[in-house]
């Protein structure tokens, strides 16, 4: 009886650690940020390639070649993003980003990135 209990604990530990490794393999796989319906209807949307991160300011190159600088802070709902990612930003009239999400529909573009 004691042996079965120990084996059950060991198997649970092995299975649990395997699940943790599977999740940790791609930390950017899950999207975290989701705009509200109000944001979708009332905020300006900027879509493009994330070119540069400068503290609380992110530079996105849109399809027209423009590179607007958006503001993010602790109140911004954000996916995990890195330079080169295709992103979609919901921005207020004052230039503050309420939601920043990866735009997987557009795919990832390889472009010359600024540091």
Structural write-up:
By secondary structure, the chain is an alpha+beta fold. It folds into two domains: about 1-30; about 35-100, OB fold (Dihydrolipoamide Acetyltransferase, E2P) (Beta Barrel), CATH 2.40.50. The chain contains two helices and six strands; from the N terminus they run H-H-E-E-E-E-E-E. Strand 2 (about 55-60) and strand 3 form a beta hairpin. The chain is elongated and about 70 Å long. The protein starts with a helix and ends in a 13-residue tail after the last strand. The model is unreliable at about 20-25 and about 105-115 (pLDDT under 50).
Helical segment count: 2
- Measured as a percent range, the helix fraction is 25-40%
Strand order of the largest sheet: 3-2-1-5-6-4
Question: What is the SS-derived class?
Answer: alpha+beta
Strand content: 25-35%
Overall CATH class of the largest domain? Mainly Beta
Secondary-structure arrangement, i.e. CATH architecture of the largest domain:
Beta Barrel
- What does the largest sheet look like? 6 strands, mixed
Average pLDDT, to the nearest integer?
Answer: 78
Q: Name the shape in a single word.
A: elongated
For CATH, the homologous superfamily of the largest domain is named as: Copper binding periplasmic protein CusF
- N/C terminus separation: 62 Å
Radius of gyration: 20 Å
β-strand number: 6
* Count of separate structural domains: 2
- The poorly predicted ranges are 20-25, 107-115
Which H/E pattern describes the elements? Answer: HHEEEEEE
What is the structure about, briefly put?
By secondary structure, this protein is α+β, with helices and mostly antiparallel strands.
């Amino acid at each position: 009886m004691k042996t079965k209990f120990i084996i059950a604990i060991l198997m649970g530990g092995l299975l649990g650690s395997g699940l943790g490794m599977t999740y940790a393999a791609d930390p950017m796989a899950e999207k975290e940020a989701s705009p509200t319906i109000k944001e979708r209807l009332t905020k300006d949307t900027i879509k493009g390639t994330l070119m540069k991160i400068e503290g609380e300011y992110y530079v996105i190159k849109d399809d027209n070649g423009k590179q607007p600088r958006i503001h993010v802070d602790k109140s911004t709902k954000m996916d995990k993003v890195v330079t080169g990612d295709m992103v979609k930003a919901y921005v207020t009239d004052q230039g503050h980003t309420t939601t920043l999400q990866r735009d997987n529909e557009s795919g990832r573009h390889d472009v010359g990135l600024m540091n």
